[in-house]
């Protein structure tokens, strides 16, 4: 359940604004300030943030409805040309108790003052960890963090969107960056965060964002994109979602659960997934399904980013002599089984066309799991499914770049769409 791609620090890079690989980077996200440089305020909008702790949750959540913009701060991106950016706080609703919450994120837009409204691309990031310091909007500065070639491909894609005149809107998700635990892999939470970020972007006084949007994500973000597409007609009916892109999406819990718990390299993802479900459902307890050895180190979940927590839990599994951190299979417990069934995408109709791309050599989200998803949604949704040979999760965006760009461009232009599920 916690599997999500080997997020190479490109994820950190683009998890915010564009793309990130999903499950794991070998490095932690940068510090809370990272490479972000606050820019001098250029507006008298009272929502422009003037304080010193942007991510501090206000005592009372501003606004009256989910998607209301709470505050924003312009920042300077060092690695993108022709772009301007802001980190934002906006109102959403918690999946655990349906109370109002504040979610953080980032908006990147073309710097030119072209007339007319700009369509939006929502980016749903992949796994970065569940600690607030891991929030992508705290670290992205528009440049690759490593020499990994996949990062360059992701940056180029983001640059392409800006040149096309799109506004890129990237949520951090509920509880990641702002107060509260992060409901990791809880699709309803992710979908709400994505849609509410788009609603908030439309309220920015420096932008003229239209109601037209494509939603795009990788691995955990692929799950988020699919859920956002399903939720859009009821959660955000004022938005016109014209397409959904899901790259190597997390989906089939039953097929992924055992491997996530028992393989040392991905043991941390099982732990993150357990705490994520607990964060989204008051009926659940981590002690029901998590070995005491792992539970004793549960504080790591709220203090470390993926690379570090992955290494620590891998070492813990080895030193404990255990083969898994799963004490009881969650699928054998009624409340857990119900919860895990609820996070599988594709159980509701998505009105917009969907592009799903998948690497055949992906060992994190195996092609077989995505094929199962496709079989479920192909008959009721309009879907294009494309697989790439010799492609692991870290290269999915690079291999699928041409198809992804074409799909998004065509959806924005209102071009005809031909489903192709085989």
Could you characterize the architecture of this molecule?
It is a single chain. The protein has 422 residues and is an alpha/beta fold. The protein has a single domain, classed as Alpha/Beta hydrolase fold, catalytic domain (Rossmann fold). The chain is 32% helix and 18% strand. It has eleven helices and ten strands. The protein has a ten-stranded mixed beta sheet with strand order 1-2-3-4-6-5-7-8-9-10, with helices on both faces. A hairpin with a 6-residue loop joins strand 3 and strand 4. Helix 1 runs parallel beside helix 2 and helix 3 crosses helix 4. The protein is globular. The protein starts with 9 loop residues before the first helix and ends in a 9-residue tail after the last helix. The N terminus is likely disordered.
SSE layout:
Elements: H1 10-17, E1 37-38, E2 69-76, E3 83-93, E4 100-110, E5 118-124, H2 149-163, E6 167-171, H3 187-201, E7 209-218, H4 220-235, E8 240-247, H5 253-262, H6 267-280, H7 292-295, H8 306-320, H9 334-342, E9 354-359, H10 367-377, E10 383-388, H11 396-413
Parallel strand pairs: 5-6, 5-7, 7-8, 8-9, 9-10
Antiparallel strand pairs: 1-2, 2-3, 3-4, 4-6
Helix pairs in contact: 1-2, 2-11, 3-4, 5-6
Pfam families: LIP
GO molecular function: triacylglycerol lipase activity
* Overall spatial form: globular
Major sheet attributes: 10 strands, mixed
Strand order of the largest sheet: 1-2-3-4-6-5-7-8-9-10
CATH architecture: 3-Layer(aba) Sandwich
Q: State the order of secondary-structure elements, H for helix, E for strand.
A: HEEEEEHEHEHEHHHHHEHEH
The top level CATH class name:
Alpha Beta
**Total of DSSP H or I helical runs spanning 4+ residues:** 11
GO molecular function: triacylglycerol lipase activity
